[in-house]
Design a protein that fits this description.
By secondary structure, the chain is mostly helical. It has 15 helices and no strands. Helix content is about 85%, strand content about 0%. Helix 2 packs parallel to helix 6, helix 4 crosses helix 5 and helix 5 packs parallel to helix 8.
């Protein structure tokens, strides 16, 4: 009962922080979309897909690795191993992030010209690449703080990072009136670089204040850490490479259906840049819960409390589906206001309504993925996502050129249903195996 109360309190704290951060992001996204239009929003979404791929290489599975490793040490009272784990994790994050940053800077011109077909964004990609070491450090610290249940500190980091990013961007927009595509994207990249750098400093200060680096007598923690991070890193890099390719392929497939490049970017911006952003905004509470479930479920799983684990999972999934249905009903009625008034994009309102039935499925999958990571099935999560993404790429290539936008919306539904079905199947199988082993 005490564990459940702690989980609820921590979820409330992190959710409050995440909701505030996401609200700032959401408002800034509306402002930016109104300023640059749906077409440029589509290009920005494509840049983001490349940047996320860079982040994946830079963090290399360390967040889940350090959370699980330290949670297991805490559950078994191996407190003297924690300092060694932290030192190893910091070195690991610095090496991986510098390699990722170098690669993205080197290939930024090729990516912007050949992949994005927008040479003006090359400078923005270089600036974003330079921020990867900072992001990796933040990621490592937040993984440690999650394991230690220092949720308030995570909230402070997230709030500061997003607030700093928005303040820097708005300051640049106010001081300099040039609103060309290249300049706008460069300002956004500068905002991300500055905020992640400042946030890395704060993260390290919090880490030094709240952690104990004493590790005398503790064996090397590189091997236990790598056993988790390497499989996750390899599979995550494959997954996000495919995901980035999927995003970049979509405008190409839309062009094959008869649309111009500008129309393809506009439709992609309306769907992925606006409609999906609106749909994912209420999922803040679920994202926070999924993150906090990892150490809680890890502890239940490591100590063999399978019956308590199953009971908690059933309740959480039931609440998740209910929440998704309620959000879908609200967004259906608010779609015209969101599209016409907020974003000045009437087409996006239709896409929001077309995608409302996908909301409970997406939210359900977020929680199930968090549960899978907690029961040491994090590799299964990525394998499922890789299979789903590869199949989605095939469907986009075959269906979208024939059926256009309607085909793309159908592919989104098929992808989410497949992903959620496979995730719950693997979760159920993993829990059954754990129960048999405990008996």
């Amino acid at each position: 009962m005490r564990k459940l109360k702690i989980l609820i309190i921590n979820t409330a704290i992190l959710t409050g922080a995440q909701f505030f951060v996401n609200s700032l992001t959401f408002l800034f996204h509306i402002y930016l979309t109104r300023m640059i239009g749906a077409e440029s929003t589509g290009v920005l979404s494509l840049i983001n897909s490349v940047f996320i791929l860079g982040i994946t290489f830079a963090t290399a599975g360390l967040n889940i690795g350090i959370t699980r490793t330290i949670s297991e040490h805490m559950a078994k009272n191996n407190s003297n191993f924690i300092g060694k784990t932290l030192k190893t994790s910091l070195i690991y994050s610095i090496i991986c992030s510098f390699i990722s940053s170098f690669l993205l800077i080197t290939f930024s011109n090729f990516i912007s010209t050949i992949w994005l077909k927008t040479p003006q964004v090359s400078l923005a990609l270089k600036i974003l690449a330079a921020s990867l070491p900072f992001i990796a450090i933040n990621n490592m610290v937040c993984g440690y703080l999650t394991a230690r249940r220092h949720i308030t500190a995570i909230g402070i980091i997230h709030i500061f990072e997003e607030a700093a990013r928005i303040i820097v961007c708005l300051t640049l927009f106010i001081l300099f009136k040039n609103r060309s595509l290249q300049i706008v994207f460069t300002y956004v990249a500068i905002g991300a670089f500055t905020s992640s750098g400042l946030c890395a400093i704060i993260s390290l200060c919090i880490l030094l204040k709240r952690s104990k680096f004493r590790s005398s007598g503790a064996p090397s923690q590189l091997s236990p850490l790598l056993k988790i991070t390497i499989p996750v890193a390899i599979s995550s890099c494959i997954k996000f490479s495919l995901s980035s390719f999927k995003q970049l392929l979509t405008p190409v497939a839309l062009q094959k259906s008869g649309q111009t490049l500008a129309m393809a970017h506009t439709n992609y911006g309306n769907i992925m840049g606006i409609a999906m952003t609106v749909i994912m905004f209420p999922s803040t509470v679920l994202t926070s819960l999924a993150q906090l479930l990892v150490p809680e479920v890890t502890e239940f799983h490591a100590t063999g409390k399978i019956s308590k684990l199953k009971t908690s999972i059933i309740k959480i999934l039931a609440l998740t589906i209910t929440f998704g249905i309620i959000v879908g009903a609200f967004l259906y009625h608010l779609a015209p206001i969101i599209g016409n008034t907020w974003y000045k994009s009437p087409e996006s309102a239709g896409y929001i309504r077309a995608l409302i039935f996908i909301i409970p499925i997406i939210y359900f999958d977020i929680i199930v993925d968090g549960l899978l990571k907690g029961v040491n099935a994090h590799v299964s999560v990525v394998v499922i996502n890789i299979f789903d993404t590869a199949l989605t790429i095939s469907m986009i290539w075959l269906i979208v050129p024939i059926f256009g936008i309607k085909g793309y919306l159908s592919v989104l539904y098929a992808s989410e249903i497949l992903n959620a079905s496979l995730s719950i199947f693997y979760l159920n199988r993993t829990i059954k195996k754990s129960k048999n082993n405990s008996n």
